[in-house]
Design a protein that fits this description.
The protein is about 45% helix and about 10% strand.
């Protein structure tokens, strides 16, 4: 029995040191090399932090570009999807309600033209980005409310569109927080 307990205790001690001390120190060291020392990329307006670039935020006012719905209420402490599949009746009703709400606020859009990402949550529930098409489908509403030329808003979306990684990987995307900050700065 002694021959089994001693190696088990040694392995436990080594594991505790490696996984509770060494590994966290390595991760902390790597975090010190990235912008903001691993504290997240903040977005500032007039030297005041208004949000985080990589965390989705709730924008539902008609004079702003709406963000993607969140399954977790935009709570970064508990990110995750809803775990409801496309055949779940509760999920289907929730999506249908979101579509109806979007159409009420965007009467110039046909039901078929509503981008899926504006009525479905992402896997993390915190996706900060939309496709350029999902942003542009909202331009008519915002232009009417803010009395801004639509072409100016289309140009704003284009200016805040990030292309695919290295021009090859992933879709083009628009960060909703940064787009709305730029929208407020438009004259």
């Amino acid at each position: 029995m002694k021959q089994h307990i001693l190696p088990a205790l040694k392995l436990t001690g080594v594991s505790i040191i490696v996984f509770a001390v060494v590994y966290p120190l390595i991760i902390w060291g790597i975090a010190q090399a990235v912008p903001n020392n691993g504290q997240g990329e903040t977005v500032e307006v007039n030297n005041k932090i208004v949000g985080y670039k990589l965390e989705g935020q709730n924008f539902t006012a008609d004079n702003y570009f709406n963000s993607r719905p969140s399954a977790v209420g935009y709570n970064a402490a508990g990110s995750g999807g809803s775990n409801k599949g496309p055949s779940n009746p509760d999920y289907l009703k929730q999506v249908a309600d979101r579509v109806d709400s979007f159409l009420v606020h965007n009467p110039s859009i046909k039901k078929e033209a509503v981008p899926a990402e504006l009525v479905t949550a992402s896997g993390s529930g915190l996706d900060p980005d939309l496709s350029p098409e999902a942003a542009k489908v909202q331009v008519n509403r915002i232009a009417a409310i803010r009395q801004i030329d639509e072409n100016k808003l289309y140009a704003l979306v284009d200016a805040h569109t990030d292309g695919p990684l290295l021009g090859l990987f992933g879709p083009a995307k628009v960060n909703v927080l940064q787009l709305n900050v730029a929208l407020d700065e438009l004259k």
